[in-house]
Write a structure and sequence with these properties.
- By secondary structure, this protein is an alpha/beta fold.
- Among the domains are: 61-194, Leucine Dehydrogenase, chain A, domain 1 (Rossmann fold), CATH 3.40.50.10860; 213-367, Rossmann fold.
- Helix content is 39%, strand content 16%.
- The protein contains twelve helices and twelve strands.
- The chain has a seven-stranded mixed sheet with strand order 9-8-7-6-10-11-12, sandwiched between helices. A five-stranded mixed sheet has the order 1-2-4-3-5.
- Helix 2 crosses helix 12 (419-438), helix 3 (144-158) crosses helix 4 and helix 11 (390-415) packs across helix 12.
- The longest helix has 26 residues, at 390-415.
- The protein is globular and about 55 Å long.
Length: 442
């Protein structure tokens, strides 16, 4: 995308955000990811026209549930974990969003993730609102039995607000098909009937969808390829760096490699590896499956983690956690294009730096929407008890992602704004138009 002829709309800093927009349960000076989201919304307000009067709808989650999750540990003690489920907006349909188990989960993070799900679902125009959940825990320190008991207790605690037509959880960081199976079974036992549609990302034998596991990474590749086409960037000669090499980064890296690109650097929790000639992605994926990390991969050299952001590449894919690209490292990035596989990996300050340096950022709210798109397919299949083959699922996914990206690209060109702001314009208008049509009750 060419540089704009007018400066981007600059949002107020977190410190200057009106206190009336800050929930009382968050400190005004420590908004975290939620503060980033508020700034992103503020950048869009000038483009909302008459719908701007509803903007505060986007700045206040509809419902927040904080739960205590006590479980019996294997050693006979009782441990307590804090869990969350946030429903940001349900104007367009049931809440939809994943559940993450991580030691650094906070309410601010879950609030922001739920809001980004509202934007993401509206951006690709699937009939969902936004929701998110999490438990503050390091699941690697739990036995399988402890993990199951924690999952089931958490599901029972949030069961009052989830359901196939109310709020549909899915996998996220450190959660998977097995955990979704436990959640589905727990909810079904508590309601007295099998409810496969209460979660997505389930095992195929329990109503899961073919193609769901690879969907987010496939979506990253699909919109990345479309963006590259607009930049006249030849993927077959491009160098790619990937942060995070699981279901998102690993799948995206594999698809880019199959398209001829060289994946030259990969970083995960275990370290950073580099090979100028390109990594053998299938071998690396096998190594990660066997060892749990890219660390120790024999066919690459290990480099310092901070050097990852300085790797010579055309495409950078942050597919790990939020707030990875900041004002501190955005100026060192050499990529022409960033495709956000993770949720919220770039801070607003970094966005501005990248914009000034003419680095195209394909934002999370469109780039990683492949997962929720196929989750929608899974939900539809569960309701109808009729299941599609993987070829049809992938074809439908690619069609939706391409159409959504094309519309967002045009909005960006018409308004001379970044792709992130354009995505928010499209999504916020859809959400607020629905809010206006429904009105307020009572």
């Amino acid at each position: 995308m060419s540089k704009t002829s007018k400066p981007p709309v600059t949002a107020p800093s977190i410190a200057s955000v009106s206190h009336s927009l800050i929930p009382s349960y968050l400190k005004a000076d420590d908004l975290g990811p939620w503060g980033n989201y508020l700034q992103q919304v503020d950048r869009v307000v000038p483009y909302l026209g008459n719908l701007a009067r509803w903007t505060e709808t986007l700045k206040r989650p509809k419902r927040i549930l904080i739960v205590d999750v006590p479980i019996h540990m294997d050693d006979g003690t009782v441990a307590h974990f804090e869990g969350y489920r946030v429903q940001h907006n349900v104007s367009r349909g049931p809440g939809k969003g994943g559940v993450r188990f991580h030691q650094d989960v906070t309410l601010s993070e879950v609030m922001a993730l739920s809001a980004w799900m509202s934007i993401k679902n509206a951006a690709v125009n699937v009939p969902y609102g936004g929701a998110k959940g999490g438990i503050r825990v390091d699941p690697k320190k739990l036995s399988n039995g402890e993990l199951e008991r924690m999952t089931r207790r958490y599901t029972s605690e949030i069961g009052i607000i989830i359901g196939p037509n109310k709020d549909i959880p899915a996998p996220d960081v450190n959660t998977n098909e097995q955990i979704m199976a436990w959640m589905m079974d727990t909810y079904s036992m508590n309601t007295g009937s099998t409810a496969t549609g209460v979660v997505t990302g389930k095992p195929v034998d329990l109503g899961g969808s073919l193609g769901r596991r690879e969907a987010t990474g496939r979506g990253v590749f699909t919109v990345g390829a479309e963006a590259a086409r607009h930049l006249a960037l030849d993927i077959s000669t491009a160098r790619v760096a990937v942060q995070g090499f699981g279901n998102v980064g690993g799948v995206a890296g594999k698809l880019f490699a199959e398209a001829g690109a060289r994946v030259v650097a990969v970083q995960d929790h275990g370290g950073t590896i580099y090979r100028e000639a390109g990594l053998d992605v299938p071998s690396l994926l096998k190594h990660v499956a066997e060892t749990g990390s890219v660390a120790g991969f024999a066919q690459a050299e290990s480099i310092a983690n901070e050097l990852f952001w300085e790797v010579d590449c055309e495409i950078l894919i942050p597919a790990a956690l939020e707030q990875q690209i900041t004002a501190a490292n955005a100026g060192r990035i050499k990529a022409r294009m960033i495709i956000e596989g993770a949720n919220g990996p770039t801070t607003p300050e970094a966005d501005d730096i990248l914009h000034e340096r003419n680095v195209l950022v394909v934002p999370d709210v469109i780039a990683n929407a492949g997962g929720v798109t196929v989750s929608y397919f899974e939900w539809v299949q569960d309701f109808s008890s009729f299941f599609w083959d993987e070829e049809e699922i992938n074809a439908r996914l690619v069609k939706i992602m391409k159409e959504a990206f094309s519309g967002i690209w045009q909005v960006a060109q018409d308004n001379k704004v970044s792709l992130r702001t354009a995505t928010f314009i499209v999504a916020c208008k859809r959400i607020l138009h629905t809010r206006e049509l429904r009105g307020l009750y009572p």
